[in-house]
């Protein structure tokens, strides 16, 4: 089968490798759609994210959906022909975090496209059956692939404790920011302000129901919103936006860190946080969100297809990455599809 490896920063290579056989409890899946995530692009450009370093060739891609073509011994919930969204993490299932439902922070979790674990830019993959979720007939493979970023948004909203009457800000209207926006709308929140530096992305947020959008040209643009929001979601992964959270939070507010900033240490006004008795929550991936994500999309409460800007096939993954980089100010999602 064909697979695309990141050999070193800015160098992707198409290779022929063997099709794996499913182990007991696993299924073999023909990959039909994979979204390009910001983390994929970061690995492509820099070869690392924080402590995760590409030290040998790796297959990127963790937002995936496909068709089950073979089931391993003991699999009863799936059969060949089933269309599935694939949750790209495999925890140990034994540690205290797994046993209490927080398997996303399992110390031994294997997460696709995070060194050294390979991802989904390939034709076939094996995966535990219980981390594969059937897609209803009205949900496409491309939407199935986007259950992954949607799950991040759902997890962020769940951890925030947000209520319908809260006034909410989202800092960043990339893929995750847009997912958070739609998840907030789905739980009844209406007073949502979205901040970004790109007008085209703010227009998407407006069309999806943001009450107000703010084009940020300088740090001073935040001053009009000091002490304004009950809940602030930071989804841009920017040192600047993280540092603004204490200022724009209202007294007793909650700041939710979703994005991963480029710096390990970010200036944060702790004195102001304490004076406001504000709370900072962090979000790392998600746990147990895929069934709800599939349900929301199937019911038409979350819109995903309109967020896809362009499609490429597996043979043109390098061009797809360069397209994402060149158009990052305009697009939300690019999809790698296999229609064969």
Automatic annotation (TrEMBL):
Domain Enoyl reductase (ER), first and last residues per copy: 8-336
InterPro entries recorded: ADH-like_C, ADH-like_N, ADH_Zn_CS, ER, GroES-like_sf, NAD(P)-bd_dom_sf, SDH-like
Cofactor(s) it depends on: Zn(2+)
SUPFAM superfamilies, per database record: GroES-like (SSF50129), NAD(P)-binding Rossmann-fold domains (SSF51735)
Keywords of the record: Metal-binding, Oxidoreductase, Zinc
Gene Ontology MF: a single term: oxidoreductase activity, acting on the CH-OH group of donors, NAD or NADP as acceptor
Metal-binding keyword on record: yes
Domain of life: Bacteria
Family: Belongs to the zinc-containing alcohol dehydrogenase family.
Protein name in the entry: Alcohol dehydrogenase GroES domain protein
């Amino acid at each position: 089968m064909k697979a695309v490896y990141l050999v070193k920063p800015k160098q992707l290579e198409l290779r022929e490798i063997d099709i794996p056989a499913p182990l007991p409890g696993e299924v073999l899946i023909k990959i039909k759609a994979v979204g390009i995530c910001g983390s994929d692009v970061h690995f492509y450009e820099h070869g690392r994210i924080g402590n995760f370093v590409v030290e040998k060739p790796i297959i990127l891609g963790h937002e995936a959906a496909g068709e089950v073509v073979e089931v391993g011994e003991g699999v009863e919930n799936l059969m060949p022909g089933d269309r599935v969204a694939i949750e790209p993490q495999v925890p140990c299932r034994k540690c205290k975090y797994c046993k209490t439902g927080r398997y996303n922070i399992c110390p031994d979790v294997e997460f696709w496209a995070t060194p050294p674990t390979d991802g989904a830019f390939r034709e076939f993959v094996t995966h535990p059956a219980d981390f594969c979720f059937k897609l209803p007939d009205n949900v496409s493979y491309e939407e199935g692939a986007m259950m992954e970023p949607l799950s991040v948004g759902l997890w962020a909203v769940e951890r925030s404790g947000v209520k319908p009457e809260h006034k909410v800000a989202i800092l960043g209207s990339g893929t995750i920011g847009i997912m958070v926006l739609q998840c907030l709308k789905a739980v009844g929140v209406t007073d949502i302000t979205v901040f970004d530096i790109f007008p085209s992305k703010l227009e998407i947020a407006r069309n999806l129901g943001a009450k107000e959008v703010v084009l940020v040209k300088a740090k001073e643009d935040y001053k009009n919103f000091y002490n304004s929001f009950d809940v602030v979601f930071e989804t841009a992964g920017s040192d600047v936006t993280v540092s603004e959270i204490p200022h724009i939070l209202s007294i007793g507010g909650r700041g939710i860190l979703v994005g991963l900033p480029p710096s390990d240490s970010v200036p944060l006004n702790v004195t102001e946080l304490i004076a406001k008795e504000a709370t900072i929550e962090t979000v790392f991936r998600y746990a147990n969100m895929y069934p709800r994500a599939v349900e929301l999309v199937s019911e038409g409460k979350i819109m995903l297809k309109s967020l896809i800007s362009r499609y490429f096939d597996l043979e043109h993954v390098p061009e797809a990455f360069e397209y994402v980089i060149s158009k990052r100010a305009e697009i939300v999602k690019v999809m790698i599809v296999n229609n064969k």
